[in-house]
């Protein structure tokens, strides 16, 4: 109950941020852009109906996959470190809340904020889709939206987890930026380096299982896998492309679409556990 | 049963010692003034009571509960005014009070609390980001009063308050105390503490150097009263007059300053001093007593090294 009280307060406070408003607007712009792109593409290939929804989602996944982590980390990184820095944490913890309720409340409140941002962005995207394409599969679109909210939740956990482990917002911001760089750039480079080191080539005839596993375990890849699972479309998963071109012998368990949810859960719980542990022991 | 019981607590940050074997206890229903210069360890002590930090050694108990294990129950029964508390700048004053009420599961009327601390309804409807220091202090005080706490912990409560605000706060502290609340408040300004406290503890460099009632502290002053007597002229036999005044029981020193005499003496010797002076053929034009303030004592305790303590003992 205490975590819910904190979450409600935190949501009210954070949702009024001007920065969030700007990010949401940017996000909405990208979804409309995605809708326009999908409509252009569907005209090009004269696809229609449910296919256009898949096309739109495919066009939306890239901006969402980049902007949702950025929004979630910006919303999350200051959640606890910021209150520690300004001293308002002493007001919050002067009231009868456990430290873990504060961390959980922050995660819930900030996830709510990110969800609002995603819902607004995707609602605008939906309007764009109806306008440009004319037909939508609401079930697929809703499923995509829910998975994206789950993806936002994972990055909120990462952001709040980092925030709970440090007393400085600067350090928390550096940590958040490092995460984006790691998952968006370094991970891919690292996988190539490892591939060359182990297999001796960048383009093996068939890609080894470990390579697919390595490329499936980032939260971003797991987001793709999870979308692939709910839409029953393998093109969203990182293994899908290799599979369709016959570049792999079999899809390892970890690279299976449904396993994306397991990986997302791990990326949510791990930073949360570390944050709870660190914050619980800290001198404020 | 004491409301606060700190026994032999040491708190170190790395090599720095913030508190050094502090023992302190505050009885139920008492108003305890926790005095000391900035950096003496007052906030550290308060942070220990609220489990914001943990002691390196020693034990902290509040309501006879363990400050770490039972922190939630302690904070449920305590109202807190943290030092220089920042507020949530995007929430209104009223929302802060509502949040405190919901957090404590209390049924207070937020408007009543806001009015009680002297914050206007208009101000309470505004976002706290635009509050002055004094308004923020009033608002935080309102949240501390939520749920009729058994203990009020106030860290430098008069910070940023104008004289009216400080007086209002003292009145509320007395009202809360009459209701049965124990009050523990820290300050580096003696006037705040002197006016309301039953007992005072003085902290310096993480060490409680004295603890007494306000009267007790006054009594421990060697020159309790400073009497300044202004005469119409200097007596003819001034040496004899000085000697005679000095000989009075209870007088500790006499210093001539032109036509005036400054006499350090106990209260009971005052009239005798005036009588004796007039016996030397002069008229007392004016006299004033200057009750040595606790400020002198405080300064003596908290500045300088051991020399300061010598002055008082």
Automatic annotation (TrEMBL), chain A:
Transmembrane recorded as keyword? yes
GO CC annotation terms, alphabetical: plasma membrane
Q: State any single GO MF term.
A: ABC-type transporter activity
Q: Give the record's keywords alphabetically.
A: Membrane, Transmembrane, Transmembrane helix
The residue ranges crossing the membrane are 54-80, 107-133, 139-162, 174-198, 258-279
Q: Name one Pfam family in it.
A: ABC2_membrane_2
Organism domain of life:
Archaea
PANTHER family reported for this sequence: ABC TRANSPORTER PERMEASE, ABC TRANSPORTER PERMEASE PROTEIN NOSY-RELATED
**Protein name per Swiss-Prot or TrEMBL:** ABC transporter permease
Source species: Natrinema thermotolerans
Automatic annotation (TrEMBL), chain B:
Q: Which PROSITE patterns match?
A: ABC_TRANSPORTER_1, ABC_TRANSPORTER_2
Superkingdom of origin:
Archaea
InterPro entries, alphabetized: AAA+_ATPase, ABC_transporter-like_ATP-bd, ABC_transporter-like_CS, DrrA1/2-like_C, P-loop_NTPase
Report the Pfam families cross-referenced here. ABC_tran, DrrA1-3_C
Q: Which residues form the ABC transporter domain?
A: 4-230
Keywords carried by this UniProt record: ATP-binding, Nucleotide-binding, Transport
Which GO molecular-function terms appear in the entry? Answer: ATP binding; ATP hydrolysis activity
UniProt cross-references to SUPFAM superfamilies, sorted A to Z: P-loop containing nucleoside triphosphate hydrolases
Q: Which family does it belong to?
A: Belongs to the ABC transporter superfamily.
How is this protein named in the record? Answer: ABC transporter ATP-binding protein
Organism of derivation: Natrinema thermotolerans
């Amino acid at each position: 109950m205490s975590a819910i009280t904190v979450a409600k307060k935190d949501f009210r406070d954070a949702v009024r941020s001007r920065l969030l408003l700007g990010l949401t607007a940017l996000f909405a712009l990208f979804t409309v852009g995605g809708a326009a792109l999908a409509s252009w593409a569907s005209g090009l290939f004269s696809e229609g109906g449910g296919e256009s929804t898949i096309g739109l989602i495919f066009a939306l996944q890239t901006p969402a996959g980049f902007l949702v982590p950025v929004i979630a980390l910006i919303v999350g990184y200051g959640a606890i470190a910021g209150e520690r820095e300004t001293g308002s944490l002493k007001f919050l913890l002067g009231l009868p809340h456990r430290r873990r309720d504060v961390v959980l409340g922050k995660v819930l409140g900030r996830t709510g904020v990110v969800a609002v941002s995603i819902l607004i962005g995707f609602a605008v995207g939906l309007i764009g889709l109806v306008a440009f394409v004319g037909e939508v599969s609401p079930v697929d679109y809703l499923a995509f939206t829910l998975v994206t909210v789950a993806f936002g939740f994972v990055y909120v956990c990462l952001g709040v987890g980092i925030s709970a482990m440090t007393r400085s917002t600067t350090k928390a911001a550096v940590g958040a930026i490092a995460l984006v760089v790691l998952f968006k750039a370094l991970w891919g480079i690292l996988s190539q380096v490892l591939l060359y080191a182990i297999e001796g080539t960048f383009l093996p005839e068939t890609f080894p299982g470990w390579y697919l596993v390595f490329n499936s375990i980032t939260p971003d890849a797991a987001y793709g896998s999870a979308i692939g699972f709910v839409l029953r479309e393998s093109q969203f998963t990182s293994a899908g492309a290799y599979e369709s071109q016959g570049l792999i012998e079999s899809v390892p368990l970890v690279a299976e679409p449904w396993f994306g949810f397991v990986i997302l859960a791990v990326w949510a719980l791990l930073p949360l556990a570390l944050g709870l542990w660190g914050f619980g022991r800290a001198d404020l | 049963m004491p409301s606060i019981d700190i026994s032999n607590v040491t708190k170190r940050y790395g090599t720095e010692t913030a508190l050094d074997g502090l023992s302190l206890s505050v009885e139920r229903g008492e108003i305890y003034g926790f005095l000391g210069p900035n950096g003496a360890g007052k906030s550290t002590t308060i942070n220990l009571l609220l489990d914001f930090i943990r002691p390196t050694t020693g034990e902290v108990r509040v309501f006879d509960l363990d400050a770490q294990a039972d922190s939630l129950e302690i904070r449920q029964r305590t109202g807190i005014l943290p030092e220089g508390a920042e507020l949530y700048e995007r929430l209104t004053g009223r929302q802060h009070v509502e949040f405190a009420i919901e957090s404590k599961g209390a049924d207070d009327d937020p408007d009543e609390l806001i009015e009680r601390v002297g914050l206007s309804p208009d101000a309470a409807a505004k976002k706290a980001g635009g509050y002055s220091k004094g308004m923020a202090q009033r608002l935080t005080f309102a949240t501390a009063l939520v749920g009729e706490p058994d203990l009020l912990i106030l860290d430098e409560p008069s910070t940023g308050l104008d004289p009216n605000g400080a007086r209002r706060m003292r009145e509320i502290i007395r009202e809360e105390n009459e209701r049965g609340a124990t009050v523990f408040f820290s300050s580096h300004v003696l006037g705040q503490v002197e006016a309301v406290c039953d007992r005072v503890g003085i902290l310096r460099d993480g060490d409680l150097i004295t603890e007494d009632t306000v009267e007790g502290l006054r009594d421990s002053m060697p020159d309790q009263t400073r009497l300044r007597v202004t005469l119409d002229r200097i007596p003819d036999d001034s040496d004899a007059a000085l000697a005679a005044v000095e000989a009075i029981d209870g007088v500790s020193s006499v210093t001539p300053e032109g036509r005036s005499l400054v006499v350090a003496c106990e209260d009971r010797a005052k009239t005798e001093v005036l009588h004796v002076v007039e016996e030397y053929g002069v008229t007392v034009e004016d006299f004033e007593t200057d009750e040595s303030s606790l400020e002198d004592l405080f300064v003596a305790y908290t500045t300088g090294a051991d020399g300061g303590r010598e002055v008082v003992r």
